[in-house]
Amino acid sequence: MPPPEPTASPAIEVYSLEDRRFPPPASFKADALVTGNELHEEAERDYQGFWARQAADLLTWRSEWHTICEWELPYAKWFVGGTLNAAENCLDRHLAEGRGDKIAFHWEGEPGDTRTITYAELHAEVCRFANVLKSLGVTKGDRVAIYLPMIPELPVAMLACARLGAPHSVVFGGFSSESLSDRINDADAKVLVTADGGWRRGTAVALKASADAALAATPGVEHVVVVRRTGEDVTMAEGRDQWYHDLMAEAPPDCPAEAMDAEDLLYLLYTSGTTAKPKGIMHTTGGYLTQVAFTHKFVFDLHAHTDVYWCAADIGWVTGHSYIVYGPLVNGATSVLYEGSPDHPGRDRWWDIVERYKVTILYTAPTAIRTFMKWGTAEPAAHDLSSLRVLGSVGEPINPEAWMWYREHIGGGQTPVVDTWWQTETGAIMISPLPGATTTKPGSATFPLPGITAEVVDETGRPVARGGGYLTLTQPWPSMLRGIYGDPQRYHDTYWSRFEGRYLAGDGARVDDEGYFWLLGRVDDVMNVSGHRVSTAEVESALVDHASVAESAVVGAKDDVTGQAIVAFVICKGDQEPTPELGQELRMHVGAKIGPTARPKTVIFTDDLPKTRSGKIMRRLLRDVAEGRDLGDTTTLADASVVEEIRRRAAEVPEED
Ligand code: WT7
Hints:
Oligomer: single chain
Helix content: 25-40%
Shape: globular
CATH class of the largest domain: Alpha Beta
Bound molecules: 5'-O-[(S)-butoxy(hydroxy)phosphoryl]adenosine
Number of domains: 2
């Protein structure tokens, strides 16, 4: 089918149509928290009042706020004058309500060691570690850097900071020493909490050695606390470095929680832009906790007393902050926390975990789902996954085929799938179905949540009621970022300068005839071919739709004739030989599916794709390869050799026309 002629010049042209739809099953609705439009209607009447009701229902406050929201664009304050403590909301109040014996975390290390941690045990360890931090001179307002693997001490350290009112800055354990020192220095942290190492794919990954290299460049760090995890030899600097277990043995058990202002900084989390230095995203206490607790409860239809919830992200990313630590703990949920990789010792590790702990809610990323698709259906089929009742996705656009595979092979063709759109900056989920209420369409994040207003606008900032454009947010929301640490100008320029009065998410989106939102990827992932804007995600989705393709990444490379030409990097399914004939077939397939404008000029077969540690495809590198330029900075590559391999193959492939 040829693409429709564009009428005006829409910001992003959209060709593909998806007409499958899945209403919530009656059996799910029977027990769901929300089955109708009541929350949306309540929030439409008075969005601030709606959030105030959530704040009062979901959290325990030390003292009440006097103003729900003060909005002086681009700065919002929520629950002004109210005080509370995040650790107290995650722990103490569950104990006070007699739920101390409830399991907070089923922790599982990669080698197979396990720890079951109740709310009472977590509370005790957090209080003790807060006293350790105090003994090292940490007081309210001091920044503490945390560089740990996925072990229980990671949430313990975060909550201990929160208890004292010391903002934490968690740096993902997979980051290099240079990334760590940059972040420590930007936040001016005085204490670092790290470990000897962590387990990944059967190998002990040395963290302390990497921390040591970083510490050579961080004059502000006075103390380093080291958790023993792998038992590998490490160097301990006299007077600076101390073992976690030694300090904990000495620390007193009781530690009162500080009363924090709703707008006090809870944490910093660094997120990389495409080029410049990482931005320290600031999240505060009252509004953040309100929205993470609300979304965790209603997006996943949490029944805290019976559900076993597993967010398989790393705590080092915002997904882990909001949906492993703060959301689930505020809601008193029981979670699985897993240290390692999905293919150790076998490719069924996740399904083994789901079966053993009877996980009911699973939250993961499209990149993981597509990896499992590549590995085939035998592994999940060999396990009893019938406990699962809600599946979540986050991090990138999920192509309809992956969405369907997830529902079919992990969800037994039954479970609602919630595709949740949000960002480090938004702090919590913004656009998502409510699983008992929303009819879903594969690949669509559906609608803004109650209390959230999103609009798609064109190049000039005019709202687009139907069609493609730039995703913007038009009202403040409780968990929104409060700025970029130390750089108010950059905050203004990045998010608030392009369209007046609107937060610019940086993502392309489309609204269909029924008002559903379809996320199309970052705006800089939008290609321009002969004046037609085409989303990389859409071409990728068409490629993955072909029976021989496991995964693909598409970039726009400079082209003298068409401005940009579409170059597709393609990973074949296991048994499929990559041949020039297949390359041609794929080009035709995309052409037939989306239209000739979207047909890739070149298809490059590869065994792997360069990805960041969080699994995002590094299109910048692929663009460099496609344009034959020198490669840029590769330090955030999951596997640097991938790029070399891709470059080698790219050099071998003749351009097709
Ligand atoms: C960017 C934010 C949100 C936690 C993890 C990533 C992309 C995120 C979706 C989704 C399409 C998505 C966007 C966004 N993204 N979720 N459901 N559908 N795209 O946090 O690293 O701050 O990345 O991830 O491009 O802007 P992040």
